[in-house]
Amino acid sequence: MAAAVAAWLTVLGLLTGDSGPGFDEIVKMFGPALVATLLIGFPVATLVVAFSGRQLARSVETLAITVLLVCVMLLLSAYWIAGSFGILFFGLPSVMAALTYAVLGWFWILRPMRENGNA
C-alpha cells in the first residue's frame, strides 16, 4: 500500500497544474497504482528477499547499491519502451515504489533478521 501511495503521489505531482486532470481522475488512478505495485513490485521484492535476504541483511550499503541499480534499470527500460514520456510516467513512479519497498523491507524484514542473528 505504501509503495502504491508513493507511486501515485509521484504521478499526482507530475499531473497537477493548470491544464492537468481533475481531482476525480487523479483519485481513479490510485487503483491501477495499487494493482501494479501488488502484481509487479511485491513479487519482485519477495523474490529478492528470498534469494538474497541474508546478504542484504548484512549491510545496508549492499541494499542501497542493489536498489539504486534496480532504479537505473527501471528508468532505462521505461526510456527504451516509451522515451522521455516513459521516464516521467512509468519510470519515476516505479522508482518511488522500488525505493519504498527497499526502505520498508529494511526496517520490517532485513534489520530484524540482522538483529536476530539470522543474517
UniProtKB/TrEMBL annotation:
Alphabetically ordered keywords of this record: Membrane, Transmembrane, Transmembrane helix
Regions that span the bilayer: 29-51, 63-81, 87-110
Official protein name in the record: Uncharacterized protein
Organism: Qipengyuania xiapuensis
Entry keyword annotation includes Transmembrane: yes
Keyword Transmembrane helix assigned: yes
